[in-house]
């Protein structure tokens, strides 16, 4: 019998031999606050409507074609449509884990799960092969279009959905289908006689195989993941349209120095490499991931945590090539970055990974979904001009209900549905609370299990209250992450101030804890001005507004018809926070003093001597900045994160 709301292990369940510093919580539940609201929208709007969108887009029609249940044409020529359903099924798995899901919605999701599983079982061929695109359109070309075919990519998402459903509900029907797919891949790929020596043009199977190994104990799945990592970078995919860098096939993984090519591919690969390291202990793999992550963060990451500078190939650019108007920052890339940061945090225990996870979560990721949960955006720019006209490789920069290439919407759903698992980690002697979300969290520590209740209005308020509900008698350490921006943070235990401060991003308190002990972490949430590295040419002379983990932006709708291009911010004037509850819901806005620059006299040529193009005197203006994740929810129009300063 399928169970719901049973509080499963999350997306990662390590083995006893896993090479990590920190392990996921044994129990996690977000019960209130900011993220409970976003997850409720996901549960009540995104996931149910996802079923309808998948039907409208032809995903189910294509599978029914493959099962010979309907006739007609295959809908959409993209080869990875099956994966959209698989990501949605993973979101269903974690949603069924939600105790706030009512019995009616739960029953509906279970019926849809059963219908989907039955259909996939009907499509699956006798030897385990399952891919509607190739079974219908190219039945004789199995595993011969590896650069663009996405067969193993789709298989990876199927496996992840199957593992998630098994963990959340005990349902093993989809797991059996996923295992047959994986078993076929084990037989088909390798360097032996009759095997295909190749890798998928889009990494994803690697991390899925490692998780399937963890779920089943079947070593061949881990061995295949190792094979795919080892063979990446040997030119097996050819040059393609964008060169070997596009699919990270230009250099072996262990020799890689920089983040290159398609950003989602790069980060999915790194997540898989990190997983393989965890289960094999191959230190050369960890060193490679650390190198690439460090280079990416230092030179190729936007203030929002977004990545990807090129529209044409959805790829990284050169170091410090981070255009604001043409930033790509795909929502899927933000999700992939969060997946990688979470893994690296577990492996190393270093707070910098949690810092990037938080930045990306609240900004680069969350902007991908409208506040009402009905619309999504594919690319996330940091600036949109008045009258922007989408053309060529630009994109509309507006949220829509679905996409022809709909990789992002179900990806958003599965992360939000599983988010509670990204909050607390532990080792033998400590609990590490690295994200601040109201809820209850438990983990093994000091020979027993400790349970914490967290209450906070973060990110609007910086007070994070932690109450020890239960725990072992032996002393253990509570480690609280102090974000890099949080200068002047404070900590009390049972009302008594604790000195020492944070070391390497963690404020640690070791003691014999008792039920009822209360800890208060206070993070200062004063608005601040941020400047960019001078090598970021596009941001010279500009500042950005931040408050806590949130990046802020100006929107045209707040500025009385002034063009945002004409606004400047007075960097020497105070910034003021103001709580509002209007069209954007309950938010904190930041008010600043600025000016509207006068425009130079119209001329047929916009260049000349410095004196000739100098703008006339500016007029004072009040500026209002809103959280970046809320932009575009009230009206289409201009927006910018980086504002000229004076």
TrEMBL record:
Source domain of life: Bacteria
All residue ranges annotated as the Non-reducing end beta-L-arabinofuranosidase-like GH127 C-terminal domain in the record = 527-644
Domain (Non-reducing end beta-L-arabinofuranosidase-like GH127 middle): give its ranges: 431-525
Q: Tell me which InterPro entries the record gives.
A: 6-hairpin_glycosidase_sf (IPR008928), Beta-AFase-like (IPR049174), Beta-AFase-like_GH127_C (IPR049049), Beta-AFase-like_GH127_cat (IPR012878), Beta-AFase-like_GH127_middle (IPR049046)
Q: Tell me where the transmembrane regions lie.
A: none
Residue ranges of the Non-reducing end beta-L-arabinofuranosidase-like GH127 catalytic domain?
Answer: 31-420
**GO annotation (BP), single:** carbohydrate metabolic process
For this entry, the protein name equals Glycoside hydrolase family 127 protein
Which source organism does the UniProt entry give? Friedmanniella luteola
